[in-house]
Design brief:
3 strands; 6% strand
């Protein structure tokens, strides 16, 4: 039998593993990285929705023009692209789906005929759904 080795009193013990301070520092660093990555990803989602809204407004304008070519007049409201109105005998639709009448944030796209400087206006009011704003809350208009 081997004699057990005991440590001399006052001799430093060998440390195995990490200290609490080292673990806290690593957790803080990981948290900071996750916060940075998360903010980038969320900003990217809003940027993607804004680009999608621009594309959607342009596409919807083309569908309104197709309606006009078929019926000889502009729709009175956007729902006329989905369901045939009574006063459109040459209606060959549906020209759009119900979901296409809302922007990526779920707000109804505004339609005005006649428009301010053209035959009609289409407007998505952005993320906040209100007129005006900046960045992702800015209005997206058919040009």
């Amino acid at each position: 039998m081997r004699p057990s080795r005991s440590r001399a009193p006052g001799a430093p013990s060998r440390q195995a593993g990490f200290s609490l301070l080292e673990i806290i520092i690593v957790l803080i660093l990981i948290g900071g990285i996750l916060a940075l990555v998360g903010s980038r990803l969320l900003g990217g989602a809003d940027r993607g929705k804004a680009n999608l809204a621009r594309s959607q407004v342009q596409t919807l304008a083309g569908k309104i023009e197709n309606y006009q070519l078929d019926t000889g007049s502009l729709p009175q409201r956007l729902d006329d692209l989905v369901v045939a109105p009574q006063n459109a005998p040459n209606w060959l639709g549906p020209y759009a789906k119900e979901a296409e009448l809302k922007d990526p944030w779920g707000h109804a796209i505004e339609y005005r005929a006649p428009g301010e400087s053209q035959d009609f206006d289409l407007i998505s009011y952005g993320k906040d759904g209100k007129a005006g704003g900046s960045s992702f809350d800015a209005d997206i208009k058919y040009q």
